[in-house]
Predict the structure.
Amino acid sequence: MGNSNFGFSERKRKGLIKEKGIVIGRKKSMNNKENSPFTPGSPVPVELFVGRAEQITEILRYVKQASSGKQENVFLTGDRGIGKSSLASFLRYLVATKQNVLGIHVFLGGISTMEEMVRHILDQLLKETKEEVWFEHISQFFGKYIKEVGLFGISVSFNPPEHDLKDLVRNFPEVLNNLLEKIKNEKAGLFIALDDINGLVEKADFANWYKSFVDEVATHYEHFPVFIMLTGLPEKRDILSIRQPSLMRIFRVVDIEKLSDEEVEGFLSTAFEKVGTKVEPEAMELMVRFSSGLPLLMHEIGDATFWADDDTVIDKDDAFAGISNAAEAVGKKYLDPKVYRGIRSERYMSILRKLGETGPISQNFKKKDVEATLTESEKKVFNNFLIKMRELGIIESDLESGRGAYRFVNAIYPVYIWMESARFKEKQKRF
Ligand SMILES: Nc1ncnc2c1ncn2[C@@H]1O[C@H](COP(=O)(O)OP(=O)(O)OP(=O)(O)O)[C@@H](O)[C@H]1O
Ligand SMILES: [Mg+2]
């Protein structure tokens, strides 16, 4: 990022703070805009999905294998916000449209009992099939537990009593097999994505239940065209393998990481094009750079830039405004609770402010350069400060640049830290 303040020139920086009021509040767009194509925080719609070609090919192969009768299991992992749910949802769409598989994507975040899990799976299967012309032949599968909910019964839910749920948990292979029997003329198999299993994994019974499910299927059913994909954070996968070591032989682990800059650019162009907005090359370069390959950031930055623009041409100024606003939003969500409100040590806070103040801050920094700006008493806790920031997932060692080199985990955190330092200074000046 060279030695211009984050790519913001001094003029730009002052301009942003003073003229547009970006540091203090969001730039308000005066125009009447249609809705933003960006979806920070929820899985991306199919038409804006980018990348993951390798993982898609691999997983589709397993789904095919499953459809031929051999039950398959995948554990999809990756860091928070990297795009697990989006990939699961895109895969569900692909298998449903291209492989004639009945696909469901079930969100299990916050669920911690097996009964609730099974109820959610069956509930989703019900919702997915309700509109099919062949729903008639499977409606008896759900028995009398279909409950019409919502106004005028426009929506249905699956709500059996607790003791029946216990049976459904115990006999889950048979339950799925009965359903497969009923839909075998319509569908080649089942695709079940169990998303956010983070809470369930903590329970020993989930690991044991899954293991028995797979064993029973293997020993009792010759043809069981069911593909199951769990998604969770990498550390949850480790917990699962400790709880039930043989489970990890069952799962094929698929990992997703950052997107490439080309993929981010592809995404931003399509999204802006969708709303008839042109992006100038310099602006594109900035948005791509600050997205740091992270899907969550490209949505935050794209969204903020979309709202900052008022003439359907994104120029450099719009991009700067968008990046600052995105940094503000991301910082408030991720850095405020953990860092600005979480760290009690006054010395840590003053080191952090210096990190945000000293000359040209970039995503990378050298320990000794920061150290040179510290007081004696700050120097004493500097090592611990770095450890703490690493533990909080704010910085990481920059191995390529050698010992004592660090970097922020993305390019947007330092922007917020820089803005916070500027705000702090302003406040001090006033008093
Ligand atoms: N392949 C992609 N193409 C375009 N946008 C994506 C892609 N993957 C993820 N996103 C976007 O990135 C953000 C995070 O994605 P998502 O919610 O899928 O991540 P996640 O890994 O499931 O996160 P969590 O760990 O919080 O569950 C969302 O705004 C989503 O729209
Ligand atoms: Mg998710």
